[in-house]
Amino acid sequence: LVLRQLEETGYTVVDSLLDVEKDLQPVIDEYQQLLNGLSKSLDVKNFTSYESDNLSFGEQLTRLMQVTDGTIYQNLEISLPQNNISTETPMHHGPAVFQLLTNPKLLDIVEELIGPEIYSNPVQHVRIKPPQKLLPLNQKQNTLVSQAIWHQDQGTVRKEADETMMLTVWIPIVDATEENGCLVIAPGSHKRGLSLHCEMPSGIHEIPDRLVGCSRKTLPMNAGDVLFMNKATMHSSLPNTSDGIRWSFDLRYNPTGDATGRPWFPGFVARSRSNPNSELRSARLWAESWRKARDSLAEMESPVFQRWNPNDPLCA
Fold first, then answer.
1. What torsion, rounded to 10 degrees, do the Cα atoms 262, 14, 181, 140 define?
2. What is the pLDDT, as a whole number, of residue 309?
3. In what order do the strands lie in the sheet with 167-172?
């Protein structure tokens, strides 16, 4: 049933797949500890006048975003940025996040959809979105913390991954509602293949609204629900008009051996029925692989992440 719906509509939601207390709370606790450390270690102007211990996680993050003009966010990310990478570029690869990536309940569904040899694709993000009205001006177009524009995940990777059976797995850590900026899906759009993405003044690439079509479905989800989505399914998000955060992870998996679309970033074998010894089971080694990738990228010219021609006449 899950596979059939994915094939027909380009997405499927498995309700209550993850247990909020057992599967998600360790991630929340890990990020709270990370944020507490950042709050105490950063010498941020005006932040000391706020008692961070008395703020909720969302309030604490929003305030840090404001006083650092958003630069704090990379400390929370589970991937590297697309440019300006140095040996000091911060990132987070903690054991609770690794346990989420390798959660057996998650991988059971992934196996049903793409097969038993599962590779954790390194195109992955944490998205913790403060209320839109409280974002620093220079972050209002940053889709990691602000409203996501219409796109396909296939359009964010290199052409070499066009034949890869790449599966997006979207996990809300808190309830995703229309008010706080849940996803919007264009059902069946995956059957049209890869669409044109046009570069906006901010540098991000989006599918022109005229190409999205009229069929659009708002997709509120509860914490514990998990969305599985075809790489060619068009999707976006609503703005966060609430007073709280919207927090999610978007992960990707593909059959082991297929191109990931980001060859300079490290993935790993998450499950192998044919060779279980090939599975990565160490959060420490996972984190170390990202540090090695960072050091390597810091020594080279930044690779080209985008596949789109900024001067495409169809975008005029």
1. -10
2. 86
3. 11-14, 226-230, 167-172, 246-255, 117-129, 268-272
pTM of the model: 0.95
Nearest to 223 by CA among 21, 8, 5: 21
Q: Which pLDDT score is estimated for 233?
A: 98
C-alpha distances in angstroms, 95 versus 121, 212, 288? 17, 38, 12
Rounded to the nearest 10°, the torsion over CA 227, 229, 234, 240 is: 20
CB atoms inside a 10 Å sphere around CB 16: 11
In the chain the beta strands, taken as DSSP E runs, fall at 11-14, 117-129, 167-172, 183-185, 198-199, 205-206, 217-219, 226-230, 235-237, 246-255, 268-272
> pLDDT tens digits, residue range 111-166?
999 999 999 999 999 999 999 998 888 888 888 889 999 999 999 999 999 999 99
How far apart are alpha carbons 2 and 13 in whole angstroms? 8
- Exposure letters 151-187 (e unless 16+ CB within 10 A, then b): bbbbbbbbeebbebebbbbbbbbbbbbebbbbbbbbb
Q: Round to whole Å and give the CA distance between 145 and 130.
A: 7
Identity at 104, one-letter amino acid code: P
Q: Which residues pair with 217 in a beta bridge?
A: 185
Q: What is the DSSP string of 146-172?
A: SPPPSB-GGGGS-GGGTTS--EEEEEE
End-to-end CA distance of the chain: 42
Q: In Å, how far from its chain's centre is CA 63?
A: 22
Both tokens assigned to 124: 């992955």
HSE-up (13 A, CA, CB side) for residue 40: 7
Model pLDDT, residue 138: 82
The low-confidence residues of the chain, meaning pLDDT below 50, are 49-50
Separation between Cα atoms, residue 293 and residue 309, nearest integer Å: 27
